[in-house]
Amino acid sequence: NAGVTQTPKFQVLKTGQSMTLQCAQDMNHEYMSWYRQDPGMGLRLIHYSVGAGITDQGEVPNGYNVSRSTTEDFPLRLLSAAPSQTSVYFCASSPDRSFYYEQYFGPGTRLTVT
Amino acid sequence: AQSVTQLDSHVSVSEGTPVLLRCNYSSSYSPSLFWYVQHPNKGLQLLLKYTSAATLVKGINGFEAEFKKSETSFHLTKPSAHMSDAAEYFCVVSDRDSGTYKYIFGTGTRLKVLA
């Protein structure tokens, strides 16, 4: 199993550009989520999905869109990048939404918006 | 509402001495609690978890944590620090809030191990 994979590892965008961060898992997990990590703030939830076709907003959803057409994939779209979106982004998955089981994290995407 | 407080943002220990990373939580129900480790420029890796079984939980790399409901604490310990333990550690609480499960991260403790 590859686990949770994310691409790209690094990205630099100019303000106003759009892009998609890719996330895939091969563990047949129902629950998938996107977090951003900023210094001194831990990880904050952007969007999550409890299954194919079902998504919902987390703590900091503004400026981001998600969709989940398959169990495996959960891309995160930045609609019009802003410097405030400079961060490290982590995708995670879990067998179900109860978190009785832990979340499994991808290696992260480091995004810089200039 | 749930919350997690990691009481120290930075901890420094000498190699071979004990490690204590402190975590307090707030929860309305019966939480699950986790500790994750993040090495520089890496993703998060699970160290250990508590899910209402034994209150003393053993994890990987010699770490353990004790769930103390009366103190609402879940402190992470290791008897003897190794240089490879230098990393950032996150305490996480998972619980139900208004019918929705939430996974709340602490702000992290950066562990430095001195030779």
Task: Write structural notes for this entry.
The complex is a heterodimer of chains A (114) and B (115). With 114 residues, chain A is mainly beta. Chain A has strands at residues 4-7, 10-13, 19-25, 31-37, 43-51, 54-57, 64-66, 76-78, 87-94, 104-105, 109-113. The model of chain A has no long low-confidence stretch (mean pLDDT 94). In chain B, strands 2, 5, 6, 10, 11 and 12 form a 6-stranded mixed β-sheet that branches. Chain B has a 4-stranded antiparallel β-sheet with strand order 3-9-8-7, with no helix packed on it. In chain B, strands 1-4 form a two-stranded antiparallel sheet. Chain B has strands at 3-6, 10-14, 19-21, 23-26, 32-38, 44-50, 56-58, 64-68, 73-78, 87-97, 100-105, 109-114. The interface between A and B is medium-sized, with 21 and 20 residues.
Terminal Cα separation of chain A, in Å? 36 Å
Structural class estimated from helices and strands of chain A: mainly beta
Q: Which structural category fits the helices and strands of chain B?
A: mainly beta
The parts of chain A where pLDDT drops under 50 for at least 5 residues are none
Furnish the topology, listing elements before pairings.
The complex is a heterodimer of chains A (114) and B (115).
Chain A: E1 4-7, E2 10-13, E3 19-25, E4 31-37, E5 43-51, E6 54-57, E7 64-66, E8 76-78, E9 87-94, E10 104-105, E11 109-113
Chain B: E1 3-6, E2 10-14, E3 19-21, E4 23-26, E5 32-38, E6 44-50, E7 56-58, E8 64-68, E9 73-78, E10 87-97, E11 100-105, E12 109-114
Parallel strand pairs in B: 2-12
Antiparallel strand pairs in B: 1-4, 3-9, 5-6, 5-10, 7-8, 8-9, 10-11, 10-12
